Amino acid sequence: MSGTIEVKPAPPAPVVKQAAAATTRIRRPSRWTEARHSFRRHWQLYLLIIIPLAYFVIFKYIPISNAVIAFKNYSPIKGPWGSDWVGFKNFELFFQNPVFWTLVKNTFLLAAYTVLASFPIPIILAVALNEIRQGFFKKTVQLVTYAPYFISTVVVVSMTILVLSPRIGFVDDAIGLFGIPSIDFLGDPNYFRHIYVWSDVWQTTGYSAVIYLAALAGIDPALHESAKIDGASRIRRIMHVDLPGIMPTAVIILVLGVGNIMSIGFEKAFLLQNPLNLAQSEIIATYVYKTGLLNADFSMATAVGLFNSVINLFLLLGVNFAAKRITGNGLWS
Amino acid sequence: MSVTLQPFKARLNKPGAQVEKTTIAETRTDRIFLIGIKIMLTVALIAVLIPLIYVVANSFSSASAVSGGRVFLWPVEPSLRAYREALSDPQILKGYYNSLIYAVGGTFISVTLTIAIAYPLSRKTFFGRNVIMSVLLFTMLFSGGLIPTYLVVQDLGLLNTRWAMVIPSAIGVWQVIIARTFFRSTIPDDLYEAAVLDGASDLRFLWSVVLPLSKPVIAVIALMYAIFQWNTYFDALVYLKDPGLYPLQIVLRNILILNSTTGSASDVAQQLERQQLANVLKYALIVISSLPVLLIYPFIARHFTKGVMVGAVKG
Lengths: 333, 315
Prior knowledge:
A: mainly alpha; B: mainly alpha; 15 helices
């Protein structure tokens, strides 16, 4: 074969390519043969995967197909597919509902505030922990700050309520020292977001810092060594070695955070809600629950939920695209 | 490099100096900066600890001291009454019992199913693994929503049964990724080839070779599922109506947040006492319900972290 190429000075590349293609065609069986082969040899693995796969079909994909009731007038007797089509009526009703903008605003502001607060704080904690020596103090700080992550939402919310309650809680005493009169934090809608976000920071900072600590541990010590020899101070080394080192991790976490901005958790907002702070605490997730399960308006609730899911999906894809463009890191790199 | 620097290190290694690989003396700004960092970390430590200690201190105090807001970080008029009350309340005990069932049973089902899907997906010879993985990953990005899922659970007749607590949330995609990554990075292909030569089937290999080698990751995902089951209340809120099936978290929510106290009081004095007791009872309940998880947590924290890290490595 090489002889032919030498004799003919004409472009050798296509010849080689063709030959290579020919050999691969002979050696590699088609995908279907491969599949049959794999199936015959490893049928047990395919057997194994049936039940878990059925789980995903039944509990994840059938619900997606059931979401068709957003475009229908759902009747329990006719079922999701048998109900009558109404087109976009449910969506139009929702958009015209005066509550629509409040919901979108509440959801967005709550989530954005959460991301803004809970993104930088774990990084600060991790970098600070990384600066001090291994030892009792470091271990204690890590263990204690990590602990609240394991406490349930119900308990964290009740702790928050107890701590903030006028007369009983210690926050009331603390602000009393500064001469501020008692505040009913949970009864005032203006405090809702702060309570939500800062109790969240209290609960998750230690956990989130762990990821950054691992990223910091992965930074080549030689970088720190040479920076030190060049006379870089601790602050400079943090700015020019540590922070760039954890950049990829931070970008992924930020993308996930911003991407999930509209799907902010139901659990906590619902628990912190009371009739007095509803003006700011009613978010899309809690509205869906109330419309769907308490008022049994299945179609409307599904439409609202679907609207949220779609917005969220586009947000995630958009943010990921932007992050990839700007920093070169993304979810699917 | 550190070898050549050893003599310098020894000379500069006076007490109080930072022992690090290279020992260039710390500048004054650096030392001040380090002190600043330590102060900051201490503040963080205290900020996390105060609410926790506050709750524990209150739970051991008398009802009147709690209601008067006289307790801060140390019990006032120490009393165990709240714990006695809480542990004799049938509703709370039932909740505890139910939560244990859900945590143990749910974890068993979840771990089994997770391995059953993660292992085949980790094998290079498994045809269509990338397609199936994308099918799973898509569910992380998009879901049908609350009501469509509710309809499925309803159609399957799971509403208001114990199954509703463990089946609809049985498999976490994140846990599948963690297990798959672990299998892929720790079980070499050669091991499989060797087992096949010895006449082992795929299932036999999984059971006798892969699972014993994967104890650490199985422990991690089991703990993740168990803690999730213990702490969640959403599925119970949506799918359960019978109070006899309520997990602890729903019972807690009813008592702690909705303030529904058990029992009724006839006269005013008794009512006031009940009211005061209800307050201290809340603190005791918080301690009782969080204790199992917080007690085991220091021992598992490290493995937990490792598991999260394994899952974070993409590929």
